[in-house]
Design brief:
single chain; alpha+beta; Ribosomal Protein L25, Chain P; RNA Polymerase Alpha Subunit, Chain A, domain 2; 2 domains; 4-stranded mixed β-sheet; 13 strands; about 25% helix
């Protein structure tokens, strides 16, 4: 079910008007696409936070504008805390869209019990599906992933009607042998020249 956003039209533009808008607890946004003109809007900041927390991609606009839209770009402040602006694209729920979704790992990898480290190569992939069927994310079941092995985008569980845009051979996760003992050996060897060097300095002083 798409998130519903209560939007108002923005009559004033510019940085000062935008700052006032944010002080009033609203986020500026622009709606465009489908050959229609741009609509400059504002959305309650609380609704935007809920939208992002739910990782929603498709939204229903209510209030001053009634449209179905796709969240295209989210602009954050330099600290990545507050949302500064949203770009929304008009869509029909039946039309195909390409979007980026998160990858959710499931299960305890066998390689972890073998002493390996589970490394995520990427946390998201691009998919194509209808605008009304965008999943929150895709599941990667790593239960059988053994030490030295890896899983690719081809191993992701795809809901019906969803296809991958990301190449299927893209590595999503892998299990590696920890690097430990082998890296400690050169440290002991490096200690010997120091003793010899000190001995050399001492004999030089005696001479």
């Amino acid at each position: 079910m798409a998130e519903v956003l209560d939007v108002e039209k923005r009559e004033q533009m510019g940085s000062s008007a935008t700052r006032r808008l944010r002080r009033d607890g609203r986020v500026p946004a622009v709606l465009y696409g489908h050959g229609e003109g741009n609509e400059h809007l504002s959305i309650p900041a609380a609704q935007v936070k809920t939208l992002l927390r739910h990782r929603s991609k498709t939204v229903e606009l209510a209030g001053a504008v009634k449209e179905t839209a796709l969240v295209s770009i989210v602009q954050w402040d330099p600290l990545g805390i507050e949302v500064l602006h949203l770009d929304l694209i008009r869509v029909n729920l039946k039309e195909l869209v390409q979007v980026t979704v998160a990858v959710h790992r499931h299960g305890d990898a066998a390689g972890l019990r073998q002493g390996g480290l589970l490394i995520d190569n990427t946390h998201e992939v691009e998919i194509e599906c209808s605008a009304g069927q965008i999943p929150e994310g895709l599941v990667l079941n790593v239960t059988d992933l053994a030490l030295g092995g890896h899983m690719t985008a081809a191993d992701l569980e795809l809901p019906e009607g969803v296809s991958l845009v990301t190449p299927v051979d893209t590595v999503i996760a892998r299990i590696e042998q920890p690097k430990g003992v082998a890296e400690e050996e050169p440290t002991d060897q490096a200690g010997e020249p120091e003793v010899i060097s000190k001995g050399g300095d001492k004999s030089g002083e005696e001479g």
